[in-house]
Amino acid sequence: MTYVIGKECIDALDRSCIDVCPVDCIYEGARKSYINPVECIDCGACELACPEVAIFPARKARTDEQRKFLADNASFFSLPLPGKTEPLGSPGGGERISPVGTDTPFIGGWPKR
Ligand code: SF4
Ligand code: SF4
Questions:
Q1: Which option is the CATH number for 3-100: 3.90.550.10, 1.20.120.530, 3.30.70.20, 3.90.190.20?
Q2: Which tens digit of pLDDT belongs to each residue from 26-56?
Q3: Cβ-proximal residues to 44 (8 Å cutoff; 6+ apart), any chain
Q4: To test ligand 2's pocket by mutation, which of 17, 98, 100 has the most ligand atoms within 8 angstroms of CB?
Q5: Please, are residues 52 and 8 in contact by the beta-carbon 8 Å criterion?
Q6: pTM for the structure as a whole
Q7: Looking at ligand 1, which residue's alpha carbon is closest to its atom 2?
Q8: Is the minimum distance from the CB of 40 to ligand 1 under 6 angstroms?
């Protein structure tokens, strides 16, 4: 299981979650952060730290929108991002490669806040 970052993070990006994640599995895109579902250890620290209340456990993704964000968080790592030829996969730590500098097409097309 993993945690998911929802729409409230878009254009907020204050990095509080990144600072508390014990395994550095939160990656910063251009407008939003994404949790790597393979690297997340399901501790819940990020959910408590987010001032935007953007983070929720995947098991609580009940609405269509929440399920879209669950799938989109995973696709940030499993599909090539715009301008890239290979997927990110599991780099083993966000601090080394963040900000990645781009978002999934789903987030890139989201209206500005
Ligand atoms: S649940 Fe824990 S391990 Fe997973 S992203 Fe949040 S802080 Fe990191
Ligand atoms: S703490 Fe919340 S708003 Fe800030 S980067 Fe993390 S998910 Fe986004």
A1: 3.30.70.20
A2: 999 999 999 999 999 999 999 999 999 999 9
A3: 3, 57
A4: 17
A5: yes
A6: 0.96
A7: 43
A8: yes
